[in-house]
Amino acid sequence: MTQKTPVTVARGDGIGPEIMDATLKILEAGGARLEIEEIEIGEKVYERGVKNGIEDSSWASLRRTKVFLKAPIFTPMGKGYKSLNVTVRKTLGLYANVRPCTSYYPFIETNHEKMDVVIVRENEEDLYAGIEYRQTQTVCESMKLISRPGSEKIIRYAFEYARANARKKVTCMIKDNIMKMADGLFYSVFQEIGAEYPEIEQERYIIDIGTARIAAKPQDFDVIVTENLYGDIISDVAAEITGSVGLGISANIGQTCAMFEAMHGTAPDIAGKGIANPSGLLLGSIMMLVHIGQNDVAERVHNAWLKTIEDGIHTGDIYREGVSKKRVGTDEFTQAVVARMGQEPVRLSPVRYGEGKAGGLQLPPLKEIKPQKKELVGCDVYLDWMGDPDKLGDMASKMGTGNFTLEMISNRGMKVWPDGAKETFCGDHWRLRYKAKGTLTQHHILDLIDQISAQKLDVIKIENLYTFDGENGFTQAQGE
Ligand code: NAD
Questions:
Q1: For residues 432 and 210, what is the distance between their CA atoms, to the nearest angstrom?
Q2: Can you tell me the distance from the alpha carbon of 436 to that of 119, in angstroms, rounded to the nearest whole number?
Q3: In the list 77, 81, 293, 450, which could disulfide-bond 358, CB 3.0-4.6 Å?
């Protein structure tokens, strides 16, 4: 295949231009067939007053090429500025964040000789929806959203990735002992989709012990699939213990577009000094080559890079006296990789990428969801209030009596009425749970809110209670 693949490239900020220059030189020497379109993103664009750091004209290039190789960029602090990474991910629907974490023992110092974990992190949902409210003087709410299609896409991706890359096991990490509905949904989809991949071993960890196990025994893991926040944390833990965050890669994959980058930032402390390690971005660009079907080039470049690492030619961040042979800057490292093009490592395992197919993994359409009977059976009314739970119980149980029964009151999720414990601390954030006596409509709820407001109680939020095919669509309060 001689046809060139169009790719959008951004040189970024700080060490970005240096490591991008190095990466592109190595790709060229490896015979990559790329037609590069450059766009400007980051600091200079923010300075021009573009709040999300990317000009409208750059979107046109991304939509045309659908492949983005991105150097790190500076994200300004302060209100009003939006993270470019989050904007690009969400705009282009890059739902899967794939982060391979590999150790290169004994050539790069690490406590974990055999580590080859790939973290597949959901990239669009969870607490990263950024839906937050300050509801009382002392309480803020951050909304965690987990959807069935969002879970299905990422879990399917993880299994397809495992199959395509001859991986043996997929581990699901969740906290469904506490978040029974949201994380429970994610895990039930894992079980359902996992049943279609019987040849792949499957396991589940609660995220807290799972994180501890990754830190202590990373060799026990293969592919890990998890929600957005957990994935963000465990991928940093996993990258750190490989011995070098500087080698971490982050691929962001969507249905039609994909973005590849290094995990690290702009390293302002070493920018312009010619000593940055280009390996993170280079390894990201190798994932890009596989994504566009240039597996032959990916294999050649990756093996040349492994041979360079094995020969002890190391930049300052990974240089260790007694292990490394030569401390080099960015240019010399680049030349060393170029000089080894066509060679393979001897002690580290050479990579094999097999036949190439452009477009990345193709997933089947989402499963059809059987319609369920949804019934309104009550509502939770949230109040900003201070006082004694029994006094609130007395007042609130006299409201809406034609249509509702006050079932319980909770404060920050803990039941405090009826029969609350005296020791429970109560803040200014209360929930009144009203259950319907018979058939309920939205008008009954509005009528109830009117009655509560008339008592000078400050209603801050209403949450409807539904059943789905008779099963509760809400959890019980703690202590209920
Ligand atoms: P950082 O990753 O830039 O630097 C942390 C430390 O690692 C520094 O000591 C740095 O010198 C070193 N380091 C990082 N990459 C290296 C490399 N390739 N070679 C050698 N040493 C390297 O993290 P930070 O200092 O917290 O962030 C700096 C800036 O980068 C911030 O503006 C932040 O918003 C941005 N950032 C951008 C991205 C991105 O665009 N994807 C990711 C993270 C941080």
A1: 36
A2: 45
A3: 293
Q: In the chain, where does the domain assigned CATH 3.40.718.10 lie?
A: 5-339
Confidence of residue 84 (pLDDT cuts 50, 70, 90): confident
Give the number of other Cβ atoms within 10 Å of residue 38's Cβ: 12
Taking CA atoms only, the protein residue closest to ligand 1 atom 43 is 265
User: Is 269 close to ligand 1, i.e. is its CB under 6 Å away?
Assistant: yes
Question: Would you give the end-to-end CA distance of the chain in angstroms?
Answer: 66
Sequence-ordered alpha helix ranges (H) in 259-410: 279-291, 295-310, 330-339, 389-396
Average pLDDT, the chain: 94
pLDDT at 478 over 90: no
Q: How far is the CA of 271 from the centre of ligand 1 (A)?
A: 10
Q: Averaged over 347-352, what is the pLDDT?
A: 95
State the pLDDT confidence band at 1, using cuts at 50, 70 and 90. low
Give CATH for domain 5-339: 3.40.718.10
Q: Which of 313-322, 351-360, 367-376 has the weakest average pLDDT?
A: 351-360
Query: Which residue minimizes the CA distance to atom 40 of ligand 1?
Result: 72
Per the model's pLDDT, the better-predicted residue between 79 and 26 turns out to be 26
Q: 387 CB contacts (<8 Å, ≥6 apart)?
A: none
110 CB within 6 A, ligand 1: no
pLDDT of residue 442: 94
Burial grade of 131 (CB within 10 A; 0-12, 13-18, 19 or more): exposed
The C-alpha atoms of residue 36 and residue 159 are separated, in whole angstroms, by: 32
- Our measurement of the distance from residue 121's CA atom to the centroid of its chain's CA atoms, rounded to an integer in Å, reads 4
> Is pLDDT of 354 > 90?
no
Q: Determine the 3-state secondary structure of 172 from DSSP.
A: strand
Which residue has the CA at smallest separation from atom 35 of ligand 1?
A: 265
Q: What is the pLDDT of residue 396?
A: 96
The CA-atom distances, in angstroms, between 383 and each of 203, 378, 402, 419, 436 are 41, 16, 21, 20, 19
Closest residue to atom 7 of ligand 1, CA basis: 267
Could you give the CA distance from residue 448 to residue 421 in angstroms, rounded to a whole number? 28
Q: Please list the residue range(s) of the chain that carry CATH number 3.30.70.1570.
A: 374-472
Phi, psi of 410 (to 5 degrees): -125, 155
CATH of domain 374-472: 3.30.70.1570
Best mutation site among 69, 99, 266, 269 for ligand 1 pocket (most ligand atoms within 8 Å of CB): 266
Give the C-alpha separation, 40 to 74, whole Å: 12
- Cα 443 from Cα 101, distance rounded (Å): 54
